[in-house]
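quick one, 332 residues, struct below
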Amino acid sequence: MRKVLAAALCLAATATGCGATVESSGDAKSAAITLTNCGRQVTYDKVPRRAVTNDVGITELMFALGLEDRMAGFAMPDDKGDLSAVPWKKGYDRVKWLSKDQLTKENVLDAHADLVFAGWNYGFREDAGFTPDALDKLGIPSYVLTESCHNGRTKSSRGIMPPLDALYADLTNLGRLFGVEKRAAALIARFRKQIADVRAKAPKGADRPSVFLYDSGQDTPFTSGRYAAPEQIITEAGGVNVMHDVADSWTTVGWESVVERDPDVIVICDYGDVGAEQKKKFLLSYAPLRGVSAVKHRRIVTLDYADLVESPRNPSAIARLGAYLRTVPTGR
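---
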C-alpha cells in the first residue's frame, strides 16, 4: 500500500518534481487575458504577482503548478492534517501563512494582494461581505474555485460541472493566467492517466461496493450528495455513493437514510477538532448503525479533507480508495 501511495504522490506532485522539465512561471505573458470562470467572462489586466489563496486544496493547486513565486500568502485552519509529507511541502515552507482562519479584506490588503483565489464556502461568503464583487470595488481581481460555483438550483447550491472536470478547468485557467500552460497540460494528462488506470481495475456492475462519506456530525451526519467531489472520487475508485440521489453538494442527511442504504464501506473525512479515530469510535459504537454492513465488518477507511475537496490530491485519493475497494468482498 505504501508503494501505491508513493507512486500516486509522485504522479500528483508538481510538474517540477519527479524529473519533469517545464517552463518557468517567470516567462508568463503580461498582456490582458479573459477566462471563463463560473460561467462568466472575467478579464485580468496583468499576470498576478501577489496572489493569495484560501484553504488547503486551493493553495495546493497553486503549488502543484509551481506558482509559489507568484504568491503573497494563504489562509487556512491548522486542522488539515500533516503538511510535512505532502508533495508541496516546499510551497508551504516558502509562502506566508497569513491566517489560521479565512481570508478577510484586511489581510488581503495587508498582503498587497493582486489576486484572491478562493471559493464559495472556501473563503468567499456573503455574510462577511467577502465576495468577488466587494474585492472588485477595492481594485483586487479574484478567481472562484470552479467546484464551488453557485449553480442556481438554490441560493447556496454549488457545482456546475463534475468535480474532476472542475479540477481540470481550474488548472487550465490558472495555466493560462500565469503563463504556465504546458505545466498545466502535463499535470492534467498525468492525472487523467492515473485515474484511467484505477478505473480499468475497478469492480464493475453489481460488484461495485456502496460507500457512505462521513464528514462529521452525531445527531445528523454531514456528507456528500452527487454534486460534491466525493461523488466522483468514489465513482472513479470503483464504488457507488449511497447518497447519489441527494441533489446537493455537501449537506446533512438523516441516520435513517444511511441505515436504509446499508453501505458496504464508510469513508471518514479527516479534519477538524474531532479526529478520524474519534469519528471511527463513534460510528462503531452508535447503536442505530450496528446492523450496517460497513460497521458490522469494520470497513471504515480514512481520507484527508484535502483528498475530498477539489485539489491536486484527488487523483492519489482515487488510487488509494480504489485499492481498498478492490479488497471488499462481493455479496458482503
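Residues 1-22 have pLDDT under 50 and may be disordered.
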